[in-house]
Amino acid sequence: SNGMKAIAQFLVAKSGYCIHFASAMAVLARPLGIPSRVAVGLLPGEKQDQTVEGRTSYRVTTQDVHAWAELYFDGIGWTRFEPTPGRGFVPTYADKATPGVPIPPTTTTPSATPTPTPTTAPTNSAKPINPNDPTASSGNGAMPIAWLWSVLILLGAMLLLLVPAIVRIVQRRVRLRRLGKGYPLAQTGWKELLQSVNDLGVDVSSTATPREAAGVIARAARLSGSGQAILDSVLGLVERQSFAGESSRSATSSSGTPAHGSAWEDRIRSVLDLVRSASGWRTRLVAALAPRSIWSRLVFSRAD
What we know:
By secondary structure, the chain is mostly helical. The chain has helices spanning 2-13, 18-29, 142-161, 163-180, 189-199, 210-221, 226-244, 261-277, 281-289, 292-303; strands at residues 36-42, 46-52, 55-59, 65-73, 77-81. Strands 1-4-5 form a three-stranded antiparallel β-sheet. Strands 2-3 form a two-stranded antiparallel sheet.
């Protein structure tokens, strides 16, 4: 609201009128759980020499209009506070010897305060703030804080959108590392290959056999020659592991296939590179930043 913007500008300028000091104290007290309010009234004014019906009289003008803060304490009630330096009257309970307690003026003469003036040297930021002024919110402190919050919110949203990409990177590294250590190809590298081509927009049915899936991958990557041979060797071991219980470490070189897990890791990486190369750069960018294999799971989980 305009009132809070005015207080924010006052706290930056550290200069203003009594209404600014009283409003700031009331606002700062509420986050501490202290009920607060701003009271507006008149100072006693100037004491007159003559009396009226035997009673002392005072001359009060518009220059004596004043605002102060009142805070509520259980068992005590509403208690007056005078946050404006040099104005009003310090409550009797205030220790004037304590640094920071405002000291009221010792004399009050008509020429002492001809017009309301700021309590410190006047500056452009210390002028009375008009709530209807569209430029009132352009204070030096309010705008940088708002800009900082906008940047933090934007960065948080970007990080949130990158979570699926980070998950895919971790999945890929874990699977290929396990494949290099000798874990079954069908449960590591082959699973990674199927998920990667899915991210690249290649639709492989979840009910497809390994041979059917390999055919879809070969057509999407337009494999031939050595690339097709690498995929065929990967398919052969996946089928043997799926149907004959063979492990990656037990694969022999009798059929020209590698026997060590690290070699199978290299072959999976080669097939992945061939599939990516056959895709456009936009497809590769979307697959890296917004992998649909992760997003689809999030959508389905939300729907469930």
